[in-house]
Specification:
This protein has a single domain, classed as Alpha-Beta Plaits (2-Layer Sandwich). 26% of the residues lie in helices and 33% in strands. The protein has three helices and four strands. The protein starts with a strand and ends in a 17-residue tail after the last strand.
Length: 105
């Protein structure tokens, strides 16, 4: 599995507008196992997006979907910036099938 956790910063006073656009992105996408949009309670403009995909290629392919391209175009003008961004390798959890833990070198 492939995971992404990223922080977006909305333009001042535009967080609700950006949240509404991001929530429209919750429609099923091939390979998307989880897509969660959350308010950052420590920031008036912060939004966290947590995603889990079956693999990295599925995430990359999703960015080419017409509806995702439209969502990005609508969101871009009200995104003031980005904060932290983390790539992860999810092993399982509620709603996810458990993965085998590989031995570390």
């Amino acid at each position: 599995m492939y995971g992404l956790i990223g922080k977006l910063l909305a333009a001042p006073g535009k967080r609700v507008d950006l949240l509404e656009i991001l929530m429209e992105g919750n429609a099923r996408m091939p390979g998307c196992l989880s897509y969660v949009v959350a308010i950052d309670p420590a920031s008036t403009d912060g939004i966290w997006v947590t995603e889990v995909w079956d693999n990295k290629d599925s995430h990359a392919a999703s960015l080419q979907l017409p509806r995702v391209q439209q969502m990005i175009a609508r969101a871009r003008p009200i995104i003031a910036g980005f904060g932290e961004r983390f790539e992860t390798e999810p092993l399982g959890g509620v709603g996810l099938l458990p993965q085998t833990v590989a031995a570390e070198d």
